[in-house]
Amino acid sequence: MKISVCIDAVLRGYDLDKSLQTVKSLGIDSFEFWAWWNKDIDRLVQLKQDLHLEVVTFCTKFISLVDSSKKEEYLSGLQESIVVAKRLDCKRLITQVGNELTDLPRNQQRENLIDGLKACVPFLEQSGMTLLVEPLNINVDHKGYFLYRSDEAFEIVDEVGSNHVKVLFDIYHQQITEGNLINTIIRNIDKIGHFHAAGHPGRHELGNGEINYKAIFNAIRKVGFNGYIGLEYFPLTDPKDGIEESKTY
């Protein structure tokens, strides 16, 4: 298990240079971010090389997968994102799936989502990328979002049937939606490609709230997960303090 810092959340307000220099100064070699299209990719490439940092993951374009009329637009956005990922030597892309459509049965939207993900597989295989499908909570942060339960996300990944499509298990979101975190993670670890972590309530530092991150990280470690835990929270105090605390977990 390794820590990755989401610079758009934990270090929001910092410019790109300061963000990555801060990550490196804390002894962390990995970072991630949200959108690539609002960043100076040339500068990002240079900083990554100069500081010997790894880009763990970032988001593909925010285009609905539950709306079949947007399928080609989504695939085009995925291909653009893959080009950027290759420049950054990044092997994982995060995808959201879009909001639930009010005029289409939910089961049809689910089929559209699965069909869209299956259409992504050839591009992912060719590029060696993994697409991380992210459930989000609809109670606090993302009202109207289609995919909010992890069990449905795991079922969808099973139906897609490719090792290049996995679930991004956001511990914060799934605590809000369903709880039962450790058992769910252990049962489905082979389908999880990445984790996000934040305290709840408030989406702040990991030690701030009701989630027992020490126990959760220990369980993840015991089942042999050797990927990344992405810190994705909005700090209440100096960001360096929260990152240092997270390292002790």
TrEMBL record:
Protein name in UniProt: TIM barrel protein
One Pfam family named in its UniProt record: AP_endonuc_2
Keywords noted in UniProt: Isomerase
Residue stretches making up the Xylose isomerase-like TIM barrel domain: 21-246
A molecular function (GO) term: isomerase activity
Active site location: E134 (proton donor/acceptor), E232 (proton donor/acceptor)
Statement: the UniProt record of this protein carries the keyword Cytoplasm: no
